[in-house]
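Risk register update: the risk of archive-format incompatibility is retired. Evidence:
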Amino acid sequence: MVKTELAVCEIFYSIQGESSFAGLPCLFFRLAGCNLRCSYCDSRYSFEEPGRAMSIAALLAEAGKYPDAIVEITGGEPLMQAATVSLLAALVAQGRTVLLETNGSLPVAAVPDDVHIILDVKCPGSGNAVLCEENLMEIAYRNREHAFAEVKFVLSSWEDYQFARDFLRTHPLPTATPVYFSPVSGRLSLADLAAWMLNDGVAVRLWPQLHRLIWPEAERGK
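Archived output:
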């Protein structure tokens, strides 16, 4: 039986802050549940609260209130829920620009081709340095002609930086793949990360969490 309901933690309209779409108005569907417990997680409520059951039809109706916004499915870990892929497909069918943010621990192969995947490769400082290796092959496949998948590393220390730098050396990605290094606010300064990247000639994009710069005190809904 095809699942048509999802556990939704929150729905909010904000500014996309962590991808090539950063700075654009975005409607977020934050789904409940996560299979990881990252040390720096800023949305613990997504797995501490059960969320409310909503049908795909109801979520499409919510998206219809913001016809010009991009739509991002985030969590938690959205791919834990069986109906997530159906929701993504339904949004794409409506002609929406759709983003999926995933922690990379679960396969992304079933995600519709037109969805922009933002894959978070977990570093040791997260406490969850796990990755579904087949996702790298999937990203390479999707990005042969155009970039529909992006990779980000959230860094909290020099050790995390070393991990990310060395990971990219041993796991080369197609040149079309956007790659971001994003420092954890309060743990790693932009200046330190910039200095390390310049010293090593790391050709990726340094990307602070834009929404955290705009709303530094916001606990949720931003």
